[in-house]
Each structure stands twice: as structure tokens, then as C-alpha cells.
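[Protein data]
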Amino acid sequence: MVIDFGDARFASVTTGFTMQRYRSPAIELYGADGVLQLLGDDWAPEGYELWRNAKGAWELFPESEPGWQWTEGLRHLVGCIEGDREPVTRPEHAYHALEIMLAAQAAAADGRTREIASDFPRPQLAELEGQADGRRVHDPRSALIQGE
């Protein structure tokens, strides 16, 4: 799938359940001045590599928050329900993602592009700072959830 964001900004999305192994990053960003490659999986991030044309070399940056837990999104949602707060990720975001997926499916069926009409409010990520309480820890190396 190719997504056109306008202003000469594009994304290419490839997915499948038939990949036995992969060595490339899950996300790559290409720009006029370089390339950014995320390393690891979304549930076990390992940092990123950055290529800057001016430098002419790859730079490796380890994960800045190795203790980050992939389950934090669920913890945040439960905390919002318990505390009667709005979650950072809004239902409009999920609707927008669904609209994109359905448009991609329809475009694949007939070969025609689709316009996306939905939008979503910018997530307020700063609200997530310091909310992890450490009651449960996910260790991506062992794939077990352990209590403290």
C-alpha cells in the first residue's frame, strides 16, 4: 500500500503473515538528508540507526528506554477507565486507521485510489510521563510477564 500525505510525502506499507525471518527494521524513514531505521520489534525496541548524508556513515543509537513495557498502552487505558480520564489515544485515531485499512482493501480490489476523510486529534504524549507504576514487568527476552 502506498499512502500519499501530500507535499511530496509518501509511505509504503508492506505486511504479511508468511515471513519466516526478517533482518530489516520494522520502520524505515527516508528523507532528503538521510535515513532512519528503527531496530527491533515494536514490543522489543532496540534503538535506531541514523544515516546522515553529510556524515556519510551510519550512527547507532541504543534504545533510550530499555525498561519500556509494550503493555503500557493497556495499563494506560485501564488507568483512564478507573480514574475517569480521557486516554491519550482517542477513538478517532482507531477510526482513522480503520478507514485507511478499508480504503486499501477497496483500492486493491479495483485498482483505484481512495481519499481519506477522517482525522484525529494529536495525541498528548506528555500525559504519559511517569504513569508506569512498575507492578508488572514484561521481559521481551523471556516473553513472560513477571510480578515484582
